[in-house]
Amino acid sequence: MSAVAMPVSSNTSSRKEPLIGAIIEGTEEARFVVYKAEDTDEIVSSSVRITQICPREGWLEHDPMELLQAVRQCISCGLEDLERLNYGIEDIVAIGISNQRETTIAWDSSTGEPLYNAIVWSDIRADSTVDQILNKVPENNKNALMTLCGLPISPYFSALKMRWLIDNVPSVRRAIREQRCRFGTVDSWLVWNLTGGVRGGLFITDVTNASRTMLMNIESLQWDPVLCRYFNISSHLLPEIRSSSEIYGYITEEPLKGIPISAILGNQQSSLVGERCFKEGQAKSTYRKGCFLVYNTGSSRVHSTHGLETTVAYKMGKNAPAMYALEGSVAVAGSAMKWLKNNLNVVKEVSDLETAAADVPSTGDVYFVPAFSGLYAPYWRKDARGIICGLTQFTTKNHIIRAALEAVCFQTRDILEAMAKDCGHHLTKLQVDGKMTENRLLMQLQADLCGIPVERTCTSVRMEALGVAMAAGQAEGINVWDLEKEPETPVTHDAFIPSTNHEERDARYSKWKMAVKRSLGWATTKKSLAMTDERYRLLSSIPPSWFLISSFGILVISGEFER
Q1: What is the average per-residue pLDDT within 502-508?
Q2: How many CB atoms sit inside 10 A of residue 319's CB?
Q3: 450 close to 430: Cβ distance less than 8 angstroms
Q4: 3-class DSSP state of 449
Q5: pTM score, two decimals?
C-alpha cells in the first residue's frame, strides 16, 4: 500500500483563503483532496490503493484496518505537499467525507477491532439471505418494502450484508449478545475512528448512506422498526442518522487534530452535488467500476414502478429539507473492461480498449451482457449471468471489446427509459463523470445509443471529492462556500452529439433486450463440493455394464433413473 501524491497548484503566496479537505474512500483507492473555498481547482491530491480481497467467486472484501490506514496515509502525504505549496494545516477549516456506499463493516466498540472484513457493495454472498427475506413478504415480492425504504430486496444493500454477518460469523453474534457490536457503512467506520474510536468516537452516518441500507424509512429519515423487524436487526446496533452537512464533531488525531468534520455524502450523491444538479429534473451518471445514474426529484419522493431506487440525494443541514432522487445502479461497467484485460488478455492496458474498439465500425451484431454478479437496475435479477451472443466466424476480439463498451451504454439507456416512465419525461442531456469518461469512443456511443447529448465533465475533476468539499464548506458554522454562487473556476465540459438516427438506435436496443433475456436464469444454487464428490464416488463404483446411455440421461438397469 503506497501513497501517490500530486501537488497540483503552484500558488506560493501567503495564504489567506480558507481551505476545505475531502476524504474519499472508494472501492479501489482512498484519496485526500484539498480545495480553496468556492474554487473547483484541486490544490493537492494524494491517493492510496486498496487491496481487493476475493475469498470466493462473487465475494469481495476489504480489510477495514487497511481502509483506515489508507486514509491516514494519503492525508499525511497530501499535507506534506500542501506545506510545500506554502499552505499550513491550520488553513484547513473543515473536512468532508465521501465513501463507497452499501459496503458494510461490523466492529467491536470496546476494542475498536473489526469483527470481520468489510463486505463490499458488489458482493453477492447474501443471495440466500435474500430468499429468506422474500419468504417473509407478501407474494415473495422483491418490491414489497419499497414504500418504506425505496429499495428492492437485493444483496446489493447493507441490511442483507448485516444479516449475513449475524448468521455466519460467531464473533459478530457474540459481540451483539455482549452489546459491543457496531454496524456501519464506511463513513461510520471512518468518523468513529477519526473522532476518538474507543475513547468516545462519534457513531453516526448521514441520510444518503442510511438510505442505502434498506433499514431507514425514506420519509421519516430514521431507522424504521418494521424494516428492522423484517431483517431482525436491532436499531441499537446502528449509528445515529444525521444530515449531510453540519459540524458533527472534531478530529482527535494528528495531523488534522481539532479540525471539524462537517459533511458526509455517499459517493454518488456527492458526485450529484459536485455536478451542481440542485434542480428537480437534473441528472448525472458516474462511470467507474459500476455505473450510477442519479436523477434529482427535489423534495418529492418518486416511488419507482419500473425498477429504480428511491434514495436521498442530500440534506444540507439539520433544519434543511431532504432532497430526493431516483437512482439506477449498474453493477458492472469499468470492471468489465478490467475483465477483458485481466481474464481474456485481449489488451495490455485498459487504455488500449478504445483504440481496439475503434478498429471496427460496429460490433458485427455481437452483444455482451456483463451480468457477472447478476443485473441491478432496472431488472434486479440475481440469477442473471454474463453472456456474449451473436458470434460468427468473422467475429474478432475487437468486436467483443466494442460490444463491451456498448453494454455500458445500453445499461445506461435501460435506466434512462425507466426514469422516463417514472417521471413522465425524457432527459434532454446527460451529465457524466468518472474515470471511464476518458474514453471518447464510449462517450460518443453513449450519445448515439441514447439519442441525447452527453456532457462530459473535465476528466481531471473528481466530482465526488468536489461535491463533499462543497457540502463541508457550506455547513452552518463553516460558511465559506455558497452553493448558489458560481465557483471562481467553473468546471469545463465536453459535449458529444448523437450521430445516429432513431430507427438505427432502436433496432440495436431491441437486440440488446433480446440478449438480456438470454442472460436470465443462469445462476442456480450450487451443490456443495462434498456432495458432488460423494455422488461421483458412488456412481464411479458401479460397473459400466450396469448403465445404458440414452438421450434422456443415464439409465441404471436396476430400475433407478437419474436425469
Answers
A1: 93
A2: 9
A3: yes
A4: helix
A5: 0.86
